[in-house]
Write a structure and sequence with these properties.
By secondary structure, the chain is of the alpha/beta class. It has helices at about 30-35, 50-65, 75-80, 85-100, 115-125, 145-165, 180-190, 225-235, 255-260, 270-275, 280-295, 300-305, 315-330; strands spanning about 5-10, 10-15, 15-20, 40-45, 45-50, 105-110, 130-135, 170-175, 195, 205, 215, 245, 265-270.
């Protein structure tokens, strides 16, 4: 029987498929369905520091607005517990999932200040998170900040959170660093136990009627796997002791196989599970198992990293060669 077990962030997992952050992982009922469908671990939706602080500001404004009307109002609000706050709900989900699920529950965090990253990471660990995933979604807008400044900011953040928590730490990064291999190695040196490739930067759209900027969510498509696939294959031989997770564009069990072949320890899925429900995870895992059986692989460990750049003495030349092959691969459609 095919052995689908793998290891990620030091945790032994029964399968290499992980449910990444989505509305499905924001509900305890759906988390239990994902576990029943066979996923190896789950990552909860990101806790955004800005949302927490904005909610606290609105609440404070509400309290202050009424405090001058009735002298007793301030004392009343001081002892009131606001259980509906975003942070409370998020911590309750983390605590409930950690208590009810037998698979690792990973908390995702996107901070806005250095102190916020550390504070909320500690809160999530106290609530029961088995690991922390730092969701590095940040657009560098200040023209006075150099690329080196931006990178050092990321690294200092990783160091600070690493010093504050004693659970495994993964960092979800974007592909837009000018020297991605160098930055990946420095993030690991700063204390990351794993890297998640890549963060999808959602792009806003314009409403031509209202002339407003409107948020637009487009779920991933199959072709998006190619970018993280390429970089997993490049980084695996360079970071042999680091956990690597591939995310984006995973819709078939054979795409899980591709991620593992390139060197990923786990492959994460969101869009396919959102479109077809948590039970689709079971089908994906079965598709992977069938492919492995058909191709003579007895275990994920045997499969993992079979296709990387470790056989190339000059990875840059290897990449240029593949680029040329792609350009020459196009052929016109035969005329009817």
């Amino acid at each position: 029987m095919t052995d689908l077990s793998t290891t990620y962030l030091g945790f032994p997992l029964r399968a290499p498929l992980v449910a990444s952050p989505s509305p499905l992982t924001s509900s305890l009922a759906d988390l239990l369905r994902l576990e029943a469908a066979g996923v190896g671990a789950v990552v909860l939706p990101s806790l955004f520091e800005e949302e927490i602080e904005a909610e606290a500001t609105r609440l404070n404004d509400h309290v202050e607005a009424g405090s001058g009307v009735n002298p007793e109002g301030t004392e009343y609000f001081a002892d009131f517990t606001f259980d509906h706050l975003l942070l409370d709900r998020h911590l309750e989900l983390t605590e409930g999932a950690a208590r009810r699920l037998d698979i690792p529950v990973i908390a995702s965090l996107n901070g806005n200040t250095a102190g916020g990253w550390v504070h909320y990471a500690r809160e999530l660990v106290t609530a029961g998170a088995a690991a922390i995933e730092l969701n590095m979604y940040d657009v560098a807008l200040d023209p006075t900040r150099s690329a080196a400044d931006v990178e050092e900011g990321y690294l200092e953040l990783v160091r600070s959170v690493r010093a504050a928590v004693d659970v495994p730490l993964a960092v979800k990064i974007s592909p837009y660093f000018s020297s991605l291999a160098n930055m990946a190695a420095r993030i690991v040196e700063a204390g990351a136990d794993g890297l998640v490739l890549f963060n999808r930067f959602y792009q806003p759209d314009l409403d031509l009627e209202t002339l407003d900027v409107k948020p637009t969510l487009n779920l991933s498509h199959a072709g998006e796997i190619r970018l993280p696939l390429r970089w997993i294959a490049i980084l695996r031989p360079q970071l042999p002791q680091t956990s690597l997770a591939l995310t984006s564009g995973v819709h078939l069990g054979t795409e899980i196989a591709k991620g593992l072949l390139a060197g990923a320890d786990v492959v994460m899925a969101t869009a396919e599970l959102l479109r077809r429900g948590p039970e689709r995870a079971s089908e994906l895992i079965n598709e992977l198992s069938v492919w492995m059986d058909d191709h003579g692989y007895q275990s994920v460990e045997q499969l993992k990293g079979s296709v990387t750049q470790h056989t190339s003495g000059d990875p840059a030349a290897f990449e240029r060669s593949q680029y040329q092959r792609v350009l020459h691969s196009w052929k016109p459609e035969p005329s009817a």
